[in-house]
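Suppose a colleague, Dr. K., hands you the sequence of a protein chain of 333 amino acids and asks what its three-dimensional shape might be. Before reaching for any lab equipment, you can write down a predicted structure in token form. Begin with the sequence itself:
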Amino acid sequence: MKRLVRPSLCAALLLAIPGAGRAHHGVAAVSVAGPEGPGAALETTSPLPLPQGTLFTMVKSEYVPFLRLNSGPEKDYSLFNMMALGFGIRPWLSAYVFQPINVKSTDGAGRNSGVGDTNLMMVLGFKYDEGLRIVPEKESLDELMDWHFSFWAATTLPVGPTERFNGVLGEAFAPDMQTGFGSMAPSVGIAALKQLTDDLSWLGEVNYQHFFPHEYSFTRYQFGGETRVNTALVYRAYGKGRFRLDVAGELNGLHLQRDKERSEAGAMESLSASGGAMLYAAVGTRLTYGSFSAGLGVRRAFLKDLNEEADQQGAEGLERLRASFTLSYSTRF
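The predicted structure, expressed as tokens, is then:
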């Protein structure tokens, strides 16, 4: 007889909100794992939805110190904090809301902190078992070995401030130092998961986020769109009773389009010192106990092709590292 899994899913949702060159990009990624199911990566989205009636809560913090390229004031570090709530509406449909609270510091030239733009996300879960079908309410351990997929769509709500004032320099912070986008920023993504063995899982993901222009008091600015391609292997190193310890290795690819700004002639023109491509390598671990989950991860760009790297201090790809911590809890009604 097949053993049925009724997971009280212990999840970790990760939001990377890095600042590229003269940009302020962000995308939400959902990672979910059941104690008896496939593992959850640290950055790569898992397609497994929350079980119906499950409420999920999470906090995350990511510390990002930047390399210094020149003398004088430069971006020092960013601290991206985020709270999230999720709910399993149906076995194949989950909804999430993310609220970032960020800190951006420039060495000797001021610091800005505050709420970012709220992000709303809907996730549809599918599996392949003699054809593509929606995720059922319960799956056996054998069925968890099937291919799983998801499609998600999200958008930010422009609630974060965009006109914060720098008291040190006596002027408004640049757009990439503000904590809000100023306009809605929609995103879409697809994710896949295959449990290769009882202890080893593969995950993959592709997503894109678009940014619309925003009229600041001092300029009209549009952040460049971003495309992410992520892949991960997750290994269950230990599992006994309600305890589970996973280790993960990941590759995170990112392509950033150039930012645009209104020229003196009034047209939106692409900016130098923005955009490019990079590939991050990440390692991390996650400890699960019942409905609680805690994760630690570190990643760094080891390949990069920025458009004008010497002028893009504080950009994605030019971090010393990105270190993250997540803590989550889920309960089923």
